[in-house]
Design goal:
The complex is a heterodimer of chains A (314) and B (353). Chain A has 314 residues and is of the alpha+beta class. Chain A is built from 6 helices and 7 strands, in the order H-H-E-E-E-E-H-H-E-E-E-H-H. Chain B starts with 8 loop residues before the first helix and ends with a strand. The chains are: A alpha+beta (314), B alpha+beta (353). Chain B: InterPro entries: CENP-NAC/CAD_complex (IPR052011), Chl4/mis15/CENP-N (IPR007902). Chain B: Keywords: Centromere, Chromosome, Nucleus.
Chain lengths: 314, 353
């Protein structure tokens, strides 16, 4: 068909010429255009011939590049190894310094733990405290005969006037009175007096609790007591084997700063005719209640009983 | 004449009708779920006795059986009164408690409180003044005693159904009284309490609530029991009062600084501890009306305005604590609201200075 360019296999120029000739009578553009086309085709086929060459050139260029890079890589890895070796050597030299740093930190940590432990252990002295944002929180730790008992707190606000923010002192301890007397003028004395009251109360309470729990079998009925544990009244026996409870005791603690009674009354309410031995016992008991802690009096009753048993056996 | 199950008509007559009725009504009040616990605390009927009773039957029949058992065991009015005390101890919130404060003359001797002496002295004072009065006691933990008083008159027997309860902790100046007290009997009760406990004066505090334990915490100052020590391992944590600022990263709080200030102020005033429980605070105002506007009907009156403002809540102090964090009120709250536990008051009279 006229003007139509068929796709032809490269290098098939004869056929193209034949085609062009068959289209005789066409304008010059036709032939020139055809020539142009042929030229283009020629250059294309040249290019295609060149491609493998160019490819080869590229290939070889890349190959060189690879080679160069490999060399560079080897060089760098060699350098890295060298540096590592150097670092190791220097690390060996530096190590003692680093361990020194670690142990300094450890030392400081241990010191801090130590100080914390000392602060915590201060409660064993009886009075300890911790600073708060508004003042100080004082802790009074009570004890009786080596037994650590309850702790009580007084949270003080450091202002003029000094005041108590809140506390855990029992309501029957005369805190307001003691504060009215000493808090503003002599805070050491205030704390000391409070300490006395609380330790004595704790001690009396401890004795009463021990009597109730350890020697319930020796008591007829519950121990009569009050909040301050400053009046104790009970009916008791000495021998666990006894059927009756021959003695009545009434202990008054008029001095609230002591844990031993100020007044003791023991009465014998048995029906035994032989008065003298009972009177001796009664007086002995009175003396013991004055001088020994309550539960220890009963412990010594038990021991005497054991001695008696032993003497009977032998 | 009544017949008990064994058919012994004569013995049943030994218990007074009124006492039997009192037993019946008291036992009837006890909910079935608590029946065993209350009877065990009462300790009048032993395990063996209780085993003879069928606790699964209808309540009315159960009550009848128990009353008959009490009659058999010759229970007295005092035993019934004791049962009533125990029931009230289980249901203390059903009563409204007032607080009274006693005082001594300064320089008095040490209080050597003897519980038995107190009880006998208290009873004697009432019985000397009023022939017809029933007084019963029950000791409790913490060296305290519950007292039940049924009042009569010179000519009438004590009314067992309108008793007064008093709770007293030895060697303290406070007594808690469950109202239903005729005003006429109040001075006598006050006298008995002060003389028996060796005080000289008694005054009613402006403090009232159903929650006996909260009243005790307030006057004994036991409500704030957190203290800073070196022994506490956990540091005092900041509590968020119902508003967690960092809850959702998509929410940006524009007034974070203000919110934090409110939390800090609230924490300073109310602390980290659970608040004692009160149901209301009442303010009686007798003040002149103050107004910014000139003129107006209420301004420039000679007489003070009288009005009553009452705040009610199932838990008043917790509610007040949450006001500022919830944005309903400014922080700090008015000292009239925040002084309640400190001053031990929830009734206020406000006058012009």
């Amino acid at each position: 068909m006229p003007g139509q360019l068929h796709r032809q296999a490269p290098g098939n120029l004869d056929m193209e010429l034949a085609n062009a000739q068959s289209q005789d009578g066409e304008s010059k553009g036709g032939v020139l255009a055809h020539l142009e086309r042929l030229e283009i085709q020629l250059s294309k086929s040249h290019k295609k011939l060149e491609e493998p060459q160019r490819e080869q050139a590229v290939e070889s260029a890349l190959g060189t590049k690879i080679h160069k890079l490999r060399l560079l890589r080897d060089k760098l890895s060699a350098e890295v190894k060298q540096r590592q070796a150097r670092v190791k050597v220097s690390a060996a030299n530096v190590e003692p310094d680093q361990t020194l740093e670690i142990s300094e930190q450890e030392i400081l940590e241990r010191k801090q733990e130590n100080v914390k432990a000392i602060l915590q252990a201060y409660r064993f002295t009886g009075i300890s405290g911790k600073l708060t944002s508004r003042g100080v929180c004082v802790c009074i730790s009570t004890a009786f005969e080596g037994n650590l008992l309850d702790s009580y707190f007084v949270d003080l606000v450091i202002q003029k006037p000094l005041r108590i923010h809140h506390h855990s002192i029992p309501v029957f301890i005369p805190l307001e009175e003691i504060a009215a007397k000493y808090l503003q003028t002599n805070i050491q004395h205030f704390l000391f007096i409070l300490c006395e009251y609380l330790n004595a109360y704790s001690g009396r309470k401890y004795q009463a609790d021990r009597l109730q729990s350890d020697f319930a079998a020796c008591l007829a009925g519950p121990l009569q007591r009050n909040s301050l544990c400053n009046l104790l009244s009970f009916t008791y026996k000495v021998e666990p084997k006894d059927q009756s409870f021959p003695f009545c005791a009434r202990l008054l603690y008029k001095d609230l700063t002591t844990a031993l009674p100020t007044d003791v009354t023991v009465t014998y309410r048995g029906t035994d005719a032989s008065a003298t031995t009972w009177e001796e016992q009664r007086a002995a008991h009175e003396h013991m209640f004055f001088t020994k802690p309550l539960h220890q009096v009963f412990t010594s009753f038990a021991r005497k009983g054991e001695k008696l048993d032993m003497s009977l056996v032998s | 004449m009544r017949r008990d199950p064994a058919g012994n008509v004569g013995r049943a007559k030994e218990m007074d009708e009124t006492v039997a009725e009192f037993f019946r009504r008291t036992i009837l009040k006890i909910p079935i779920t608590e029946m065993m616990a209350v009877l065990k605390a009462w300790d009048f009927l032993s395990e063996n006795h209780l085993q003879t009773v069928n606790f699964r039957q209808r309540k009315e029949s159960l009550v009848q059986d128990l009353v008959l058992l009490c009659e058999e065991k010759r229970a007295s009015l005092n035993d019934a009164a004791l049962l009533d005390i125990i029931y009230t101890q289980f249901h203390r919130h059903q009563k409204v408690w007032d607080v009274f404060q006693m005082s001594r003359r300064p320089g008095e001797d040490i209080d050597l409180f003897d519980m038995e002496q107190f009880k006998s002295s208290f009873k004697k004072i009432l019985q000397r003044a009023l022939k017809n009065v029933t007084v019963s006691f029950r000791d409790t933990e913490e060296n305290a005693v519950w007292i039940r008083i049924a009042w009569g008159t010179q000519y009438r027997k004590p009314n067992q159904y309108k008793p007064v309860y008093v709770v007293y902790y030895s060697q303290t100046p406070y007594a808690f009284v469950a109202s239903s007290l005729l005003k006429s009997n109040l001075p006598l009760l006050g006298q008995a309490l002060t003389v028996a406990s060796k005080h000289h004066q008694i005054v009613k505090m402006d403090l009232r609530s159903r929650y006996l334990d909260s009243l005790k915490a307030i006057v004994f100052k036991q409500y704030n029991q957190t203290f800073e020590t070196h022994n506490s391992t956990t540091p005092l944590q900041e509590r968020s009062l119902g508003l967690d600022i960092n809850m959702d990263s998509r929410i940006i709080h524009e007034n974070r600084v203000e919110k934090e200030r409110i939390q800090r102020v609230t924490q300073e005033i109310f602390g980290d501890y659970p608040q004692p429980r009160l149901e209301f605070a009442q303010y009686k105002l007798e003040t002149k009306f103050k107004s910014d506007l000139n003129g107006g009907i209420l301004a420039e009156r000679e007489e003070p305005l009288r009005c009553l403002v009452k705040f009610s809540s199932p838990h008043l102090l917790e509610a007040l604590k949450s006001l500022a964090p919830a944005g309903i009120a400014d922080a700090p709250l008015s000292p009239l609201l925040t002084c309640i536990p400190n001053k031990g008051m929830n009734y206020f009279k406000i006058r012009d200075k």
